[in-house]
Give the backbone structure.
Amino acid sequence: MSLHSNQRVASVLDLIGNTPLIRLRSVEAQAGGNVEIWAKCEFENPGGSVKDRAARQMITDALAEGRLGPDKILIDSTSGNTGVAYSMIGASLGIPVHLVMPANVSVARKNITQAYGTKIIFSSEFEGSDGAIRLARDIVAKDPDRYFFPNQYANPSNPGAHYLGTGVEIAEALGKRITHFATGIGTTGTIMGTGRRLKEFKPDIEVIGIEPDDSFHGLEGLKHLASSIVPDIWKPEGIVDRMMPMATDEAWDASEALCKAEGIFIGHSAGANVAGALRVAREAGPGAVVVTILPDRGDRYFQPMKWEKHYLW
Ligand SMILES: Cc1ncc(COP(=O)(O)O)c(C=O)c1O
């Protein structure tokens, strides 16, 4: 969302990107001071998450190249935020959206996507996001002409959104003082695109990938690579300098602490990123300028009342 209140936009698509960077003073203090920790407020996107960027890029590139047209249904597997983004953009552009998601994703995610008119197809809750990917592939394989399958795990437009947007915005906002970029990996689009752009901008920026420390974890949106289908877009050579394992508890504690200390109510992958940025700043010491991402807001993880017209009175 733009910080300029005098802007006019043509549609909700124009509200995506150009998010502000916020300085995390309470986290800097824990790192011993004399460091800067900046976080990109991706929860400011109109669909509520960083995934608006990837979804917009995948859809607009496909429209421009004729892979998506008026007769096609957009289908994909998603752990949630990408589904919200597809649903929002699909509604705005008149594109029908079908989403495959594990039956146990949060009630909020199901309700939000359905509110935009999206159809949900449930995959096994025991097979996680990999099961959703497999089911989406099966559905498309049976009737390939009916669907546009963006496949965010293999689509270059996903990191492309961050190469063209997130990375440029960070470089322009902070310049060559940046020393580190640390962020969590899900599809890996954010780190691949932003990391590539920042490395081109200043090759000695260290890029750190944060991943759950175990296959069973509570960090929605993030992937434990060793136990997952490795995304095709994950090509870390020359982009990602090292990986950092993150415990669910440490990430959740960082989310809660940031909310109480600074009034920034973030989700758990954002907590992982803040905890990771703190570790990086502590290790690097005075002079470090660390950038991270706040992918979404904490209220997305509440169990809300169902948003529907069926009142009881
Ligand atoms: C809440 C949240 N955090 C982090 C990520 C990871 O971002 P990326 O898929 O670009 O690696 C996602 C992606 O789905 C997400 O939904």
Observations:
- The mean pLDDT is 93.
